Amino acid sequence: MLDSCKLKSACNLPFIYNKKINTAGTSNADVPLPDPGMYQLDITLRRGQSLAARDRGGTSDPYVKFKIGRKEVFRSKIIHKNLNPVWEEKACILVEHLREPLYIKVFDYDFGLQDDFMGSAFLDLTQLELNRPTDVTLTLKDPHYPDHDLGIILLSVVLTPKEGEHRDAQSSIHSFLHWRICEIKTMLMRKSWKRSSKFQTQSLRLSDAHRKSHLWRGIVSITLIEGRDLKAMDSNGLSDPYVKFRLGHQKYKSKIMPKTLNPQWREQFDFHLYEERGGIIDITAWDKDAGKRDDFIGRCQVDLSALSREQTHKLELQLEEGEGRLVLLVTLTASATVSISDLSVSSLEDQKEREEILKRYSPLRIFHNLKDVGFLQVKVIRAEGLMVADVTGKSDPFCVVELNNDRLLTHTVYKNLNPEWNKVFTFNIKDIHSVLEVTVYDEDRDRSADFLGKVAIPLLSIQNGEQKAYVLKNKQLTGPTKGVIYLEIDVIFNAVKASLRTLIPKEQKYIEEENRLSKQLLLRNFIRMKRCVMVLVNAAYYVNSCLDWDSPPRSLAAFVLFLFVVWNFELYMIPLVLLLLLTWNYFLIISGKDNRQHDTVVEDMLEDEEEEDDKDDKDSEKKGFINKIYAIQEVCISVQNILDEVASFGERIKNTFNWTVPFLSWLAIIALCVFTVILYFIPLRYIVLVWGINKFTKKLRSPYAIDNNELLDFLSRVPSDVQVVQYQELKPDPSHSPCKRKKNNLG
């Protein structure tokens, strides 16, 4: 057994092993000899200063690559959100020829995207003195923009020649074995660097030594109340302010408040705590400018370690590097954590633990922790027939499981198109209308992870305890891609809590997704909008045809119905008619006469979207026309989003009555029954009086309450036609079924 000292010394003995070893124990030409041209370069990567900002928040997540020739010999860790990073990392590099300079490249890490280039520099090894520590300052440059100042990198280097006398064969063999062990150890370290540096944006990795790895330890609930006396950035003496929050790699962007220096946001969101001591929330305020870069208003920070838990803190923060203040409410709470474990360790398979979970979400515990709606367990078993992503004809797949802002990932299975992960993920459900997203990526050492496929599964559509093969879809979730993934999912929830949560604002994702202009998307939203408007137009034409007596029997029936309804009309009849419409559609569905029509136009357009977007992307790369006219692009994106919102609103109303989500339709029936009874027995003036008193006294009773509309919150849970297509499960190839696979294996 080699001890650590010997192994370390073996690393300093680089040999070139080109010939066979003489086992007779004599020194001859077949024994590996030291290469007189070999050198050992010991580098300490100290720090960077005034590096280039590549993120929208005015910072970067820098890391450094060392290359000799075309070979990467070292990669540093990522320093998050820092333009003056301190690494203090050491690397031992073997150099064959001093004529090859050391190439240093700095990148800004972006998960899921291409890492941004931050500058590069060369270190001429021929200029170094042997056996003497040297401090080196390298100025970073961009070859395409040589005039840009990209900061500096500080190193300490020692260059040592590896020359020596001939050794006897036994000593040489022993040293060579040490060197080979060192080389293997270095390869393993590189693999470790590859995993850790590439995916440090995630929380803690799964540790095999632990039965269950808890990935976050609490929740930070933040309410952005208002801004006071912010700095005027526009020519009219006002600003269009919005605020960005960042805790580690969790981000949130507030809405934009136009033309004001004292904005009232009243927005609430949650961050996860991954560290016992809390962490620091970075806050920046910006002024939105259409057609050019947004103006920076100021920044501030919140040190969570200084705040007590289970208590709401009202903070009034002065903006640094600017003017004005921000008013926040911050609450730190402990919470049940999301977790990941091996397949052999399953919460629901342990009968005692399962009974505890069922008891926690039983109907008797309705008012106990209303935010804790349910429990989700996801078994990621394996995938088959994945897409080839590497030049070797294989892939290095890993799987990311997301539920709202909770994000966990499996280990990577290298060089495999049929990986087996056998991992169990558990989540706490805060909204039963959430969608579980499972994405498969290919881990790539030198670039961002490559997308292999994705599925989106609404929690309400899950059948408990059933192992299913889900066909992987493309990024837009509109068509199939290569491969299937086998999942087994269980959902346990409290129906009453889930119903109550439906009437409060939906949780927003803090991972920002930039809107982009797409000709195909704009056209699709216009057609959806047109379809909703045409429903109203056709209804108006129908009423007009009755008034014009185009069909005398129909007009006569409409006239009699009009007289009867107006003469006997009461307010409670409005929810009653909606209730009858829901009931009528329900009986049509259970009788097999489903009148729900799938929009083939939307589906066809969605299937073509990826192809069209690829063409648009290629055209934009060649011409760069759209990127040059920012103002027009902003207007087009706004129109595109407005069309989407209006069309989605109409489609959600339709899908409520079409029983697209039965849970929500039943909830609508209960609400309409309650409204009908209330309007029947209670005079309208009393109802309006109670409503007005509640509205006028709401701010007095709860000054920092967030305004919401229960009807809009309900409709936000109903999927639009586009989402229905995205969540639609594709039929897998029969050859991929578990039973078929088992028979084939037996055969």
From TrEMBL:
<dbReference type="InterPro" id="IPR013583">
    <property type="entry name" value="MCTP_C"/>
</dbReference>
<keyword id="KW-1133">Transmembrane helix</keyword>
<protein>
    <submittedName>
        <fullName>Multiple C2 and transmembrane domain-containing protein 1 isoform X24</fullName>
    </submittedName>
</protein>
<dbReference type="Pfam" id="PF08372">
    <property type="entry name" value="PRT_C"/>
</dbReference>
<dbReference type="Pfam" id="PF00168">
    <property type="entry name" value="C2"/>
</dbReference>
<feature type="transmembrane region" description="Helical">
    <location>
        <begin position="556"/>
        <end position="587"/>
    </location>
</feature>
<dbReference type="InterPro" id="IPR035892">
    <property type="entry name" value="C2_domain_sf"/>
</dbReference>
<keyword id="KW-0106">Calcium</keyword>
<keyword id="KW-0479">Metal-binding</keyword>
<keyword id="KW-0677">Repeat</keyword>
<dbReference type="InterPro" id="IPR000008">
    <property type="entry name" value="C2_dom"/>
</dbReference>
<comment type="similarity">
    <text>Belongs to the MCTP family.</text>
</comment>
<feature type="domain" description="C2">
    <location>
        <begin position="200"/>
        <end position="317"/>
    </location>
</feature>
<feature type="transmembrane region" description="Helical">
    <location>
        <begin position="663"/>
        <end position="691"/>
    </location>
</feature>
<feature type="domain" description="C2">
    <location>
        <begin position="351"/>
        <end position="472"/>
    </location>
</feature>
<feature type="domain" description="C2">
    <location>
        <begin position="23"/>
        <end position="138"/>
    </location>
</feature>
<keyword id="KW-0472">Membrane</keyword>
<keyword id="KW-0812">Transmembrane</keyword>
